[in-house]
Amino acid sequence: MTAAEKRVQEARDREAERFREWLDSIKVHHKQVAKQEKQRRADKLISALHAAYLALQAKTNNWSSPNRFQNFSNDFCKCDRSKVKDRRVNLIDLDSRRREQIRFCCCASDNLHLLARGYIGASPFAPHTAFSIPLLRSYIQLWKQCEAGNLPVGTQVWLEAKFGDLLTPSGNRQRFQRHFPIAVGIYGALLDRSNETPEDTLNLTKEEAAGLVSCPVCSGRTIRESRETSPNEINRPL
């Protein structure tokens, strides 16, 4: 290879490297935009669900009363029959699982209709699987007492042991390790929003907010009324 040919080849290599860097920057930008859009939609969903969550929490005594799985959709939706659609959803509880025809509408999110029945959808949009709030609450209590490093494997083993015989419409086994964390995330975000509400309303300092967490009696609540902790807060320093 002559010196001129070598210089041409080096120039081509530099150009190819710049092109690869440009492609990488485009990919990173698209990932950031997608992540921001996903977070924006998640925040919008939580904002839409939170008021209903608080109302239903009070109505069902935090989903511990006999009416915890009663359908309260009529409290939030007044659509006539022409504006609703039915879809089968896998409803999974601590001791039961079933496929049920759920009625959805255009004026309220699918997750709001599921929340009105005591369930959290495993997808922000058009979920086909939903987990009960008592199950999610029990899971979070177990999560706080288990080794976090074993969480992905342990979660799948636990779910398969309880619900392994529940199949998809095509006859395949459910992929709970993909669906369940989404429901946990939505439920955890609702807990976070509930826990932040008194702090924001009272304009508390960081020290006062820490006291609200660590000493419920000091904030005027009994131990029984102490707030629930989401997975996002378990390692929060006081």
TrEMBL record:
<feature type="domain" description="CxC1-like cysteine cluster associated with KDZ transposases">
    <location>
        <begin position="62"/>
        <end position="159"/>
    </location>
</feature>
<protein>
    <recommendedName>
        <fullName>CxC1-like cysteine cluster associated with KDZ transposases domain-containing protein</fullName>
    </recommendedName>
</protein>
<dbReference type="Pfam" id="PF18802">
    <property type="entry name" value="CxC1"/>
</dbReference>
<dbReference type="InterPro" id="IPR041320">
    <property type="entry name" value="CxC1"/>
</dbReference>
